[in-house]
Write a structure and sequence with these properties.
This protein is α/β, with parallel strands linked by helices. The protein has two domains: about 130 residues, Aspartate Aminotransferase, domain 1, CATH 3.90.1150; about 230 residues, Aspartate Aminotransferase, domain 2 (3-Layer(aba) Sandwich), CATH 3.40.640.10. About 45% of the residues lie in helices and about 15% in strands. It has 15 helices and 15 strands. It has a seven-stranded mixed sheet with strand order 2-10-9-8-7-3-4, with helices on both faces. Strand 7, helix 7 and strand 8 form a beta-alpha-beta unit. The longest helix has 24 residues.
């Protein structure tokens, strides 16, 4: 490999959430919060150094190079032609979701979402004083599927203003197919339900799985959707927050821009984030992403083979994208509550408890982040084996 994913910064010393939460044991292995352990693509550092050397952080514009990079990225990767005017950005994907909830729905309105659902998205709905309507994903032969009958039934019963979609889905790792997206769009369009599409996990994909941005589905989708993406998950630039929001419909865009202007997000842009995003979306990190995906896939396969080899009482739902593995622990004899404490106490591994982080549909599950070095992964797997007495 050209890039070295076996060497990482010391995250115990850089204020990492995942490796440095309060009261963590000294030898804990951080496999919770969804970021990468690895050094970023070299083009990002190359783009940031001149800004730091200039040492002047005045108000900056979005450059023509930035817009060309973003529009070119969508056309190159998805065949999606977007206009510069469709684009805006805010410092947070969850913040963008929360803003969209406030713009396109009222307090007391219903919002439909597939569950299990990432906690901060639930908090965003609650923070908008709206009601979350659950459309549980169905476990089918080792992966999850959308329950379309339940989705349509609840839309007709509860008349939600918005469908909050997470694609690829967190925590299950499902990458919805274009056919699934077309069906979801048809149901929403026919029932006057707008779509907020959180696509932050779209950059790492395995096998033949392909991500379809909501605005690339069809014309109907463009008339009712807000598309939200960030390079943070795939390129590990969480502390350079920059969510890209794309709104095609003129009336929806007018409402969105009225709100974003009030926050002055379009004026006070982060020069480091703009430079990093521009370099990546120009294609300068494409080879890095290919090698990252290969490395993560090898880590994933090692986990699956280890579980099978030692007959561990864990049922994996194999992700089609991202770097998070959803594990069913309900037959492990360790209960279904506070499973993060079991793994912390027995194996000194920090991971995410399903119920605590993803609601009642996550009870008995854990989410494990395998974007660690292969050496740390091997150590974690050994600790898990020993904790189950295998």
């Amino acid at each position: 490999m050209k890039y070295n994913f076996d060497s990482t910064p010391d995250h115990r010393k850089n204020a990492s959430y995942r490796w440095g939460m309060e009261d963590m044991p000294e030898k804990v292995i951080g496999m919770g919060t969804a970021d990468l352990d690895y050094y970023c693509a070299p083009c990002i550092q190359k783009a940031l150094v001149p800004i730091a050397q200039e040492n002047c952080y005045n108000y900056r514009q979005h450059t023509k190079e930035y817009y060309d990079a973003v529009t070119g990225w969508y056309e190159r990767n998805y065949g999606l032609k977007i206009e510069k005017e469709w684009l805006s950005n805010v410092p947070s994907t969850i913040g963008a979701v929360r803003m969209a909830l406030g713009i396109f729905a009222k307090p007391g309105d219903n919002i439909i979402v597939q569950t299990p659902v990432f906690g901060p998205l639930k908090w965003a709905v609650e923070g908008a004083n709206q009601n979350l309507i659950e459309n549980p994903l169905k476990p089918v032969e080792g992966h999850y599927e959308i329950d379309f009958a339940d989705f349509e039934e609840k839309i007709k019963k509860y008349h939600p203003s918005l469908y909050l979609m997470v694609n690829p889905h967190n925590p299950t790792g499902r990458v919805f197919t274009k056919a699934e997206l077309e069906r979801l769009v048809d149901i929403c369009y026919e029932n006057n339900v707008k779509i907020i599409s959180d696509e932050v996990h779209c950059l790492v994909l395995y096998g033949n799985n392909k991500h379809t941005p909501i605005l690339a589905v069809n014309k109907k989708a463009q008339e009712i959707s807000v598309q939200i993406v960030s390079l943070s998950k795939g390129y590990n630039i969480m502390s350079l927050p920059h969510a890209i929001i794309t709104v095609a419909d003129p009336e929806m865009r007018k409402a969105w821009m009225k709100q974003i202007t009030a926050y002055s997000f379009g004026y006070a842009v982060n020069s480091f984030a703009i430079a990093a995003v521009t370099s990546v979306m120009k294609g300068e990190a494409d080879d890095w992403m290919k090698e990252l995906t290969q490395y993560l896939y090898q880590n994933l396969q090692e986990i699956l083979e280890f579980i099978k080899k030692y007959d561990l009482p864990l049922i994996p739902y194999v992700p089609e994208g991202s770097f998070l593995l959803w594990l069913d622990c309900r037959k492990a004899g360790i209960g279904t509550k506070h499973l993060d404490k079991f793994f912390m106490e027995k194996a000194q591994i920090h991971l995410d408890d399903g119920e605590e982080n993803f609601g009642s549909a996550g009870e008995g599950f854990v989410r494990i982040n395998f974007a660690v070095t292969n050496q740390n992964l091997k150590e974690a797997l050994e600790r898990i084996r020993v904790s189950f007495g295998k």
